[in-house]
Amino acid sequence: MTSFVVKRLGSLVVVLFFLTAIVFILGKVGNADPVRTYTGVNASAEQVAAARVELGIDDPVSVQFANFATGLLQGDLGISLATKRNISDDLSSSLPATLELALAAIALAIVIGVVLSALYTRPGRVGQVLRLVFFSLASAPSFLVAMLSVLVFYKWLGGVLPAAGRSSFGPYDDGTGFYVLDGILHGSWTYTWDAIAHLLLPAFAASVTSGVALARVLADGITSSMASPWARTARSLGESESAVLRRHGLRNASSPALSLLAVHAGFMVSSLVVVEQVFSWNGLGSYLSTAIGVGDFPAIAAVCLILGAVYVLLNTAVDIVLAAVDPRVRLS
Amino acid sequence: MNPRQTIGAASFVAALTLSLTACAGSGGDLPGETAESGSDATDIDTTLTMALTSDISTPDPSSAYSGSEMNVVLAAYEGLVKYQTGVDTAEIVPSLATEWEVSEDGLTYTFQLREGVTFHDGTPFTSAAVEPSIARMLEEGASGPAYLVDGISSIETPSQYELVVTLDAPNSALLDYLASPFGLKIISPAALEEHGDDAEWFASNDAGTGPFEYGSFNAGTQYELTAYEGYWGELGGYDTIEYTIVDSTNTVQLQLESGELDGYIGSANKILFDGLSEVDGLQTHLYPSMMAPVVFLNPASEFFADSSTRSELLSGIDWDGIVTTVFGDLATASDGVFPASMIDPNVNTSALSFDEAALAGLADGALEGENIEIGYPSFVPGAQDIADNVAAQLNTVGISTESIGLESSAYWSTVFDPAVAPDITLFSAFPDAAHPDTWARLFYSDGGGLNLFSGSIDGLGDLLDEAAKTGDEALYADVTERVSSSGLWLTLADLTVSSAFQDSVEGAADASYPVLGITVDFTTLSPSS
To answer: Is the pTM of this model over 0.90?
Structure first.
């Protein structure tokens, strides 16, 4: 296990190096000119030239890459050309925002997957309706689900759930950036509930497709597991149907479901770019979207590095969980 | 899970959802909780919640030069003079200076300063605060607004409340430079001594004399301003101004309708404005601004090297029709080359006039069989509609034209590169100040920041220098004639800025400063009692 984790962390360094190089090269090949973002559009040619020197944009590409990589090793991500703030300061608020939303979306995807798979294997009228609703939502793009949910829960239901932002109260000065956790740590149920209420719609919009996909894989796995010879053996030994499902069916079906979840978690982070914008969620997605529009290369590179790291770590975590729940899987 | 369990689970989720907003659980503290938070429901809400649809750049008084962040900067800092709010034509009025005189040679400006003013850190405002503020602006604003004070050669302080500014050369635009939203802001000398080199400190702390102080800033989410009780003037009716970032204009509209937002000041978004105008409980206004879209023809293009072809093309397009289609009531078609409210209309009449037959002549002549490319900035509101309408008119007469949208970074690397620049482009911008020199130098002069295709007119620079030196407005008639007859540029329209406020906000109609239109004086606003 330890050697597996060490190997994965080693590969993370290599992945991040190549990711940095690719993002950097794309930024240069794209012939983007981000200087006006930094100076303001009214800046004169002379002022723009001065800013190019200040930002080192006219340096050879190799020098720029070396400067960027050196800064990175020292923990300095540079200055955002758009906000003119330290990128690490910007990310200190946007990274927890995205992680909180992603964790909530993954949790919700699991809930949707488990509930729908149960309905799928044991259909009834209510189940049929719910399946229809969820499958329809899953076939729609996430921005449409997001906008529809805002219309339903904010406009038509009189603001039962908030349409934008992460909290009605702002962050705590000494907070972790994870608002639900911060509310719990400060013992404020009002704050905690408010943060959860703000999470629900964006998490739902980001998770519904993954939840439905998970349900199908789980349902298929459970159906075949419950029809297998060892399930019949378990039943003949007197185990109840629910015990067979819990101890054998779910466990055997969980391996492909977990693998699928790992893949979908990666896609989910991508879909958050859109979802975050609809809900004015100040996360990496919104930050990246703004940065791409104005060619804010240092900010783009920083977010790509973080997303790459999250993806590798997420897959590593899923591999470990997979080995824990399925004895046939070995970490190597 | 059987159907009964399913219904139970669904009921639980629904109950949980409803309880999230209904639950007013006690216990624990909330961020920024104050004694006032517990005031009873009959109290007037003195927090004004405004929306911004994108995050702002750092609100540093010496270097801020983009637009949106000026909402925050102008609330906390003041200059010597400023523009009057609520008027169509820019008028310079006192701020930290109460009176001023200009010497006959135009080189010396003597200001009488306001007494009894304190900075937010408690330091009294005197003439000694001006020079270090200028020095910081020259340093920190070098790639931005520093040029607005660059012509000052010396500062004298005969007394605590008298200031003498001497220029390198006469400049009739100086007072406009000082009144500009991007112009000199006076900063506490004590703060400058302690934090002058620390741009990070000025990103979230202020040391001005304005009616509001920087409150809690949560970058990308929320910016709060709190009233400065020691302010020398009237504070207005709001204790707190809260700017919240809402990325989607659809959500802005929903939050205005629900009352969650008190106000929004946007750009020329016709659909949003029309939608908000129909909502009960909202008041909508069109603020005057000097924002104007300008069309550029590329003299380096093989089609537009000749000025007569350029002028024919510009004369042949029905610009008035395009302005009406794209902007509706939010804009007025332009007659000149300067924003209409900037200068006497008698010196701002374009040499071009609409000629319905001109395009047909080009289609059969200079542009026969050619393909024209319009590259428009997709990040500028209305730009795509304008470009598409121009393309449609040209295609209709047989001049093959295609319009291509470019994102910000791609746009700037394209329009200044003759090898890849399109044949036509357009851009909307506001001048730095209400003086015609700031507009002409930005768009029409060599090296001008928005002279996108580097168009050049012989002798125009000297003419602008002379006009700025003497302040003789008649010289701008010559500028207008030369610019419009060159066919290099066409000022398309005078834009307004749309705004919407709850009916409960008083004073909104006259709150806007005239140059940008998007900035307001919050002291003019108050909640209805």
So the answer is: no
